[in-house]
């Protein structure tokens, strides 16, 4: 005889309905969540290690007078291969150190969705997670190429000091005001919304497989570059070798992407940057 309790079918003689099947389903669910947590931990460890190594490399560069810092004091007259490689590596390390932590939320969410679609595939989450991170960092490597070219141009124009910051208050003020105004733009708002709400992005732009993961990472990276384009350019205000300035900008990016609420960090940052830039201009005139 079979009765029911709520919506669960129950055999009245044994009180253990479909016990074998239920136990198997329970075990499979436990294995799935264990595997999901394991893959998340491994991905988190990989990203943390890469971020740590990048920060340590930037720390060494900021204090040592050989390598990048010393080489940059010599204003290059041509794009020599050694100068390009040295400074491009510096920019890539800087972008990895500053921008990879802000992508963590998207990676963890991606892993959860990807594993739910591939329950029978072991370690797909790690493989595809590596691909989505690679796509994201590829966008920032592209930005690093632009940063290296801009650095060369500014050095040729004798606008940068030995620590790779602007000589004049006018250039610093102009950069701050431009970045501040950009905080109120529609481009900034659209790109930031994609970075703050990765679930909406994955629901509308999901692509299967390793290539799909890379493409989604690239798309997220492009949105992130669009969001933080001018904030990263402010490194020329504080100095590319200024570790404290790097930490401050990293904290600002994390706050913009992770903190929700009525208080708009985006707009308040814009007000501060514009005010700071105007202060530099006004102070220079007195």
Shape: globular
Low-pLDDT stretches are 1-16, 65-74
Total number of domains: 1
Helix content: over 70%
Please give the order of strands in the largest beta sheet: 1-2
**Major pleated sheet:** 2 strands, antiparallel
Provide mean pLDDT, rounded.
83
Class derived from helix and strand content: mainly alpha
Strand content: under 5%
Transmembrane segments: 41-59, 79-100, 121-146, 222-245, 265-283
Pfam family, one: PpoB2
Protein name: Metal-binding protein
InterPro entries: PpoB2-like
List keywords for this structure.
single chain; PpoB2-like; transmembrane; membrane; 2 strands; two-stranded antiparallel sheet; transmembrane helix; mainly alpha; 286 residues
Tell me what the structure shows.
The chain is an all-alpha fold and 286 residues long. The chain has one domain (17-285). Helix content is 76%, strand content 3%. It is built from twelve helices and two strands, in the order ββαααααααααααα. It has helices at 19-63, 68-73, 81-99, 104-117, 124-156, 169-182, 186-196, 198-205, 209-233, 235-238, 243-258, 265-285, and strands at residues 2-5, 8-11. It has a two-stranded antiparallel sheet. Strand 1 and strand 2 (8-11) form a beta hairpin. Helix 4 packs antiparallel against helix 5 (124-156), helix 6 (169-182) packs antiparallel against helix 12 and helix 7 (186-196) crosses helix 9. Mean pLDDT is 83; it is low at 1-16 and 65-74.
């Amino acid at each position: 005889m079979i009765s029911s309790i709520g919506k669960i079918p129950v055999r009245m003689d044994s009180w253990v309905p479909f016990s074998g099947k239920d136990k198997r389903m329970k075990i499979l669910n436990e294995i799935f969540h264990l595997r999901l947590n394991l893959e998340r931990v491994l991905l988190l460890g990989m990203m943390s290690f890469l971020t740590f190594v990048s920060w340590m490399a930037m720390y060494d560069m900021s204090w040592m007078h050989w390598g990048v810092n010393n080489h940059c004091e010599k204003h290059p007259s041509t794009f020599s291969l050694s100068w390009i490689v040295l400074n491009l590596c510096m920019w890539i390390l800087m972008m990895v150190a500053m921008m990879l932590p802000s992508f963590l939320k998207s990676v963890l969410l991606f892993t959860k969705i990807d594993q739910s679609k591939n329950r029978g595939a072991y370690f797909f989450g790690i493989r595809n997670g590596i691909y989505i991170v690679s796509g994201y960092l590829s966008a920032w490597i592209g930005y690093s190429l632009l940063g290296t070219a801009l650095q060369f141009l500014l050095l040729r124009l004798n606008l940068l000091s030995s620590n790779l910051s602007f000589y004049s208050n006018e250039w610093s003020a102009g950069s701050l005001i431009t970045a501040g105004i950009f905080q109120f733009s529609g481009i900034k708002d659209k790109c930031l919304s994609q970075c703050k709400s990765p679930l909406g992005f994955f629901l509308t732009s999901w692509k299967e497989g390793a290539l799909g993961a890379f493409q989604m990472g690239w798309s997220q990276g492009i949105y992130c570059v669009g969001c933080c384009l001018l904030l990263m350019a402010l490194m020329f205000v504080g100095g590319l070798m200024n570790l404290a300035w790097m930490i401050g900008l990293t904290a600002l990016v994390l706050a913009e992407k992770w903190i929700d609420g009525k208080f708009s960090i985006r707009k308040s940052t814009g007000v501060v940057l514009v005010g700071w830039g105007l202060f530099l201009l006004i102070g220079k005139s007195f």
